[in-house]
Design goal:
Order of helices and strands: HHHHHH
Number of strands: 0
CATH class: Mainly Alpha
Number of domains: 1
Largest sheet: none
Helix content: over 70%
Length: 132
């Protein structure tokens, strides 16, 4: 990821934050459509889970410009996900659901450059999570 991609992710995330609850709801709907077997890994009430998702996304997006400052947080998140039953293949499904949801949330602002920037950010974050 280069600096321009980091700025693009951070800029577009500012459009997502005000609709965080809706974003999370659409995200989880997409995730479970892509892989219904993931549903049991999550609590029945996804409202709080959605808030956690948006909080972690905010931490990750903000930390992209100084990744070393969030590496320990991202790796710890990966350790917790292992204990929840998350497997390596689930990261691909999560990434697909994330990009699909971003496309919906950003509408016309979702360009190939935005797609590439978010894909790069997700690859970097998911790689760190899976290092555990």
């Amino acid at each position: 990821m280069d600096q321009l991609q980091i700025v693009l992710v951070q800029r577009t995330f500012r459009h997502v934050m005000p609709i965080g609850d809706t974003f999370a709801e659409v995200f989880y709907r997409r995730l479970f459509e892509l892989d219904p077997q993931l549903r049991p890994l999550f609590p029945d009430d996804l409202k709080e889970q959605g808030r956690k998702l948006m909080h972690m996304m905010a931490v990750a997006v903000q930390g992209l410009s100084r990744f070393d400052t969030i590496t320990h947080v991202v790796e710890e998140l990966g350790r917790r996900h292992v204990s929840y039953g998350v497997q390596a293949a689930h990261y691909d499904t999560f990434g697909t659901a994330l990009l699909m949801t971003l496309r919906i949330a950003l509408g016309d602002a979702y360009s190939q450059d935005v797609h590439d920037a978010w894909s790069g950010a997700y690859r970097k974050l998911s790689a760190a999570m899976q290092r555990v």
